[in-house]
Design a protein that fits this description.
Length: 214
């Protein structure tokens, strides 16, 4: 008896590496700018979108980790841009905060934030964006089931960095770090990953039903 393993790649070879962002720019505009400039604009736009989602935040009593929309922004940017552009967008966002701009949650900035309780989540953002971006390049974002899987894996990556970092930086026990940095966010982050997952196949449906040349 054999067990069938679902294929990692869910698109034809010719379409691998393409993400929804590659179809957002109309052909007439895209042909007038270099690929480098187009990708640069997309990376900067992605970093700014993550910043905007960081602006939606509020403190959680008893936890040094605030509620934010950043996870949603990371999933959306990573899945839209792909591995390299998505990862670089998240990294750019983090670096802009590190140099002192108030880009992090609650208007914070500076390297001290990265060394602090929430630094692991920020580092996890970069890897999560790259992961969901890579899965999108393989076509996971074109169907709801695959998109849910991609956003779920990326969310787990954020926690995998964030919770241990929280424990080390604050001296919490593993159980206390889980209680403060994971458990209170499970429901909200589940909603965020499901919404992000629903956006991708919907966007592909819109692209596929555009009349004429995009």
């Amino acid at each position: 008896m054999s067990i069938a393993i679902p294929p990692m790649t869910r698109v034809p070879v010719a379409e691998r590496g393409l993400t929804i962002a590659d179809f957002l720019v109309p052909v007439r505009i895209g042909e007038r700018v270099s690929p480098f400039l187009r990708n640069l604009v997309l990376v900067i736009a992605g970093a700014l979108l993550i910043y905007l989602t960081a602006r939606v935040s509020f403190a959680l009593p008893g936890s040094p980790v605030p509620y934010t929309l950043q996870t949603f922004g990371i999933l959306l940017v990573g899945g839209s841009l792909g591995l390299r552009r998505g990862g670089i967008s998240a990294l750019l966002y983090v670096l802009l905060g590190v140099v002192g701009l108030p880009f992090f949650a609650e208007g914070k900035g500076g390297i001290s934030v990265v060394w602090g309780a929430t630094g692991g989540y920020l580092v996890g953002f970069v890897f999560a964006a790259a992961l969901v971006g890579r899965l999108a390049e393989l076509g996971w974002d074109r169907r709801l089931g695959g998109a849910v899987g991609a956003t779920l894996f990326a969310t787990l990556v954020i926690y995998a960095f964030g919770v241990p970092w929280l424990a080390v930086s604050t001296g919490m026990s593993p159980a206390a770090a889980i209680a403060a940095g994971l458990t209170p966010f499970l429901l909200v982050d589940t909603v965020k990953l499901l919404v992000a997952a629903a956006v991708f196949p919907a966007a592909w449906w819109v692209v596929g039903h555009r009349p004429g040349e995009r």
